[in-house]
Specification:
- This is Rhodanese-like domain-containing protein.
- InterPro entries: GlpE_sulfurtransferase, Rhodanese-like_dom, Rhodanese-like_dom_sf.
- The protein has three helices and five strands; from the N terminus they run E-H-E-H-E-E-H-E.
- It is of the alpha/beta class and about 110 residues long.
- The protein has one domain: Rhodanese-like domain (Oxidized Rhodanese, domain 1), CATH 3.40.250.
- A five-stranded parallel beta sheet has the order 1-5-4-2-3, sandwiched between helices.
- It is globular.
């Protein structure tokens, strides 16, 4: 882990490599539902940043599971990663925004 952040920041290539090799992880898109419906990374689940507050998100029951977080440009994913850390999640990987994602998205 980065010594100054409670989560790991990775680039798109590292994120894609994890998606291709890890067996158990969740990809979390923290954009709005409307943005998510316009296109998202395959197998991502939508948990808008604004909805991550004081309770564990329903979709995230395992605090040790690998969580891969992204948004549109990278700003909301940073906020969401910190909030998830404060809720007790331990394996958080933030990889920026879909607007520069060079791989396939689903619509």
């Amino acid at each position: 882990m980065n010594s100054t952040l409670p989560y790991e920041r990775i680039n798109h290539e590292q994120a894609k490599a994890m998606m291709d090799t890890e067996k158990k992880y969740k990809i979390i898109d923290v954009r709005t539902k409307e943005e998510f419906e316009l296109g998202h990374i395959k197998n991502a689940i939508n948990i808008p940043n604004e909805e991550i507050l004081f309770e564990d998100p329903y979709e995230l029951s395992d605090k040790d599971e690998i969580l891969m977080i992204y948004c549109r440009s990278g700003h909301r994913s940073l906020q969401a990663s910190l909030k998830l850390h404060l809720l007790g999640y331990k394996n958080i990987y933030e990889f920026g925004g879909i607007n520069t994602w060079p791989y396939e998205i689903v619509k």
